[in-house]
Amino acid sequence: MIKILMIYASMSGNTEIMADVIFDYIKGKNHEIVKKSFDFDPIQIDELLNYDGILIGTYTYDEGDLPYEVEDFYEELDDIELTGKMIGVFGSCDSFYDSFGGAIDTMAAKVKDRGGMLYDKGLKVDLEPDKKDIERLREFAEGFLGKIN
């Protein structure tokens, strides 16, 4: 059984919908998955080492910025070595802005910088996930699990 940690931030609920789809898919495959919100759950940076895989969901704020609730976690990543950890990054973005999904790109770069094995390049969804996006999220979860096995 694979052990996954999913942590996410969602302002409008779109990234939370994405997290729920991925969570349900992984849970349905009988793997252990713990879901935490940057807003409501304590997240100790060293707990990332207790999992086979890590999923990080973040919306992109304004012109491509990380949301404020993710900033401390992002900085704390400098205190941990993620070599050998499979990590997937996903989130909701708004194509209205020039920097589409900048926070996802920023988090993906940090994960790679800390030695993590980044799954894909990060999954971006324009605003609220539609039916096609839901399928992409399930494929993302399936591919992520396949990289851990």
From TrEMBL:
Pfam families listed in its UniProt record: Flavodoxin_1 (PF00258)
Biological function: Low-potential electron donor to a number of redox enzymes.
Domain of life: Bacteria
TM ranges: none
Keyword Lipid biosynthesis: no
Residue intervals of the Flavodoxin-like domain: 4-145
Species: Virgibacillus oceani
CC cofactor: FMN
Entry's family note: Belongs to the flavodoxin family.
The protein, known as: Flavodoxin
UniProt keyword terms in alphabetical order: Electron transport, Flavoprotein, FMN, Transport
GO molecular function, one term: electron transfer activity
